Amino acid sequence: MNDHQFDFSCDVLEQSHELPVLVDFWAQWCGPCRMLTPVLERIAEKFGGKVKLVKINTEEYPDIASRYNVSGIPNVKLFIDGSITDEFTGALPEAQIEQWLKRALPSRYSAEVKLAQDLVGEGKERQAAAILDEVLVNEADNIAALALMIRIRLFGHPDDALKLNERLEGEPGYGEFCDAVRTLGGLLQKDEDALPDDPVRERYRAALTCLRSGAFSDALEAFIGVIRESRYYDDDGSRKACIAIFKYLGEDHPVTLKHRRVFDRALY
Fold first, then answer.
1. What is the value of pTM for the model shown?
2. Structural domain span for residue 231
3. Residue 162, domain CATH
4. From the candidates 10, 33, 178, 242, which is the catalytic residue?
5. Fewest CB atoms within 10 A around its CB: which of 37, 67, 131, 245?
């Protein structure tokens, strides 16, 4: 872009209502900026049609840099619908920037994923799964769709959920969720006939039955009972199960809040 013909309101703010705009704040004297420029150009080309790259020289447009709190360069900001939605500072590795942009850009299928979420809330998981299948065919790395599909498949088809979970591994913000799914998937597939003999065996089996039916509160109550009587039964399975359920549901979920303190006390 020719900076002398640059109109920030038109080329960034207005444009960002039509297409996300990636703004690179740079200066000629900045070595890292010159390193980052070809990287951003390659990435913008890879994402062809999904984002527009605009470069702003902070020496020529200090007022814009000041308005948007650019204190260090290179500084890259993503504008969507006239506002900054994400940013980073410094010459990051190309792969890291790609992953950042992939997460930051809105999906073309956000409305479909939202509809699937609403359907799950209404108990219409089959309809939600059909929508998510279509989304994932067209956008295989749609993180929100993957996470929701894992939730739908986990208790009825744990094999499928665990395969999907492998695709979600490593995504920022999903570490605890992936750990929980991996643990719960293992429990759901457990061969009960192979469980060790122990006075708590039947209670442990009852906990697994509750878990398979999605009765989380009853499952936690049974697992905590096992912890009290035989903490390390099935390779500390009850403790691992409780932690996985808490992570899966979230720390603010009513079931988690009901059982978390009781669980903590049972350990000590």
1. 0.72
2. 190-267
3. 1.25.40
4. 33
5. 67
